[in-house]
Amino acid sequence: MAGTCRIVVMASGNGSNFQSVTDAVDSGGIPQSKIVRLFVNRKTAYAATRAEKVGIPSTYFNLLSGGFQAKGEKDSENLKQARAKYDAALADKVLQEEPDLIVCAGWMHVFSASFLQPLAGKEVPIINLHPALPGKYDGANAVENAFRDFQAGKLANNRTGIMIHYVIEEVDRGEPILTKEVECREGDTLHQLEERIHAHEHELIVDAIAKVVPEILAKKTAPTESGG
Asked: Most CB within 10 Å of its CB: which of 81, 130, 191, 192?
């Protein structure tokens, strides 16, 4: 199997998962791959500094500073239209990198169809890390919500977890690639649970990418069937 998987990473914060991915690409833990660009949507995202240190180009592209949404806008229809226009422009920028895979590593923005459909049209898969098990605690504050249920004695088997999944329009409902259960322990603080989850995130995101890359390359390099 020949070729290189061109990866675009998207992050909003510290970028520790992004760092794990770059390290794994460099070491060969993620085979036959190259990170071609990092996108951040927060100006203070330290992920961009991490990218600069290892020579990976980065782009800051934000809903407000990009002029798509007025600061303080509250009208629901205007917000929806702004998000759609931003997502379409973001998709265009991402596709300019000719990616084979998009990795959301702490990307704090829910994609609309305006982003997802252009990527699907080019058959570029998008994967995301979510700190919960499939079907549990969709959306924001997943760890906090699991911890709250644990304290109330409502968390099944006293376990939450992490999943890497394909991104679809339904938030955090795409097909799981890999999952990892994480135990909630008596006496845990929220911070302790978060730290335990973060430690496993770094491993799981690398393992998931390493799993899908050979599948992407096999499809990318497969001979095109000719019609009879």
From this structure: 130
